Amino acid sequence: MPDSLESLLVVAKEIRELLQLIAEPAIAQRDEKLRDALQQIVGKSQAKRKAVMLMDGSRSQTEIFRAVSIDQGDLSKLVKSLKTDGLLNQNEKPQLRIPLPANFLESIVGRS
């Protein structure tokens, strides 16, 4: 890829990130019920949080299992719960239906 295209791609990614920051409050309001359901399902589990954050549609359950310290049965139950609550797209590989900021689930791990 020529340098000009690479620099254009970098700028486009930066613009996308800024737009996501600006839009986050509106997205959070729109997806409030789904985000609440996600928080309930994940609970305080670090392993579940890490697994959910890897559910971008590019990894299979097996790949997520290998990447995260999570029991395979727990991962299967997690995926089933997410599907039941409408939080996953109907893809072969788990993919969250709602966008999340990178630190979204970090804030709930310490809650009681």
Radius of gyration over all CA atoms, rounded = 16 Å
Which percent range describes the beta-strand content? under 5%
Low-confidence stretches: none
How many individual helices? 6
| Overall mean confidence score, pLDDT | 85
Name the features.
112 residues; mainly alpha
Give a written overview of the molecule.
The structure is a single chain. The mean pLDDT is 85. The radius of gyration is 16 Å and the shape is globular. It has 112 residues and is mainly α. The protein has one domain (31-109). 63% of the residues lie in helices and 0% in strands.
Task: Record the SSE blueprint.
Elements: H1 3-30, H2 32-42, H3 46-53, H4 61-67, H5 72-84, H6 106-109
Task: Give a nutshell description of this structure.
This protein is mostly helical.
